[in-house]
Write a structure and sequence with these properties.
alpha+beta; single chain; 15% helix
Length: 114
C-alpha cells in the first residue's frame, strides 16, 4: 500500500466495515466535499477481490453498508478473477491439463463448391 494512502487513512479515514476476505473499507467527509470511499486490500491489491455488494457501496450504487456478501442462499461465495494464475479454470481437454480434444465425429461432411 502506498505511504500517502496510509497517512490519509490514519488522519481522515473512518472504518465502516470489513469483508470476509480481510479487505477493510473506509470513508471520509471533509467540509462540503463529496464523501470519499476506499478499500485497503488484505494482501496483494487486486480489484477483483472486492465482493459485489462492497463494490456497489464503493461506487455509490447504494449507501447501505453490506452486513454480509451472501444475500440469497443460492448464491456462490465471491471469488476473485483467477485468469492468468495456476488456479484458472481449464476444461478437461486443455493441453495444460494433459487432455486431448475429442476426435471429430464421422457425421461431418465439409462443403465442396460445384
Amino acid at each position: 500500500m502506498q505511504f500517502g494512502i496510509r497517512i490519509y487513512t490514519m488522519l481522515f479515514g473512518k472504518k465502516v466495515g470489513r469483508d470476509e476476505y480481510g479487505n477493510t473499507y473506509y470513508t471520509a467527509s471533509r467540509g462540503n466535499q463529496v464523501e470519499r470511499r476506499w478499500v485497503i486490500h488484505s494482501g496483494k491489491e487486486e480489484a477483483s477481490k472486492v465482493p459485489p455488494l462492497w463494490h456497489a457501496w464503493l461506487h455509490r450504487v447504494t449507501d447501505n453498508i453490506p452486513a454480509s456478501t451472501m444475500v440469497h442462499k443460492w448464491q456462490k461465495p465471491h471469488q476473485q478473477n483467477l485468469t492468468g494464475t495456476t488456479q484458472a479454470y481449464q476444461p478437461d481437454a486443455h493441453p495444460l491439463k494433459g487432455g486431448e480434444r475429442p476426435k471429430v465425429m464421422g457425421d461431418y461432411e465439409s462443403w465442396q463448391p460445384k
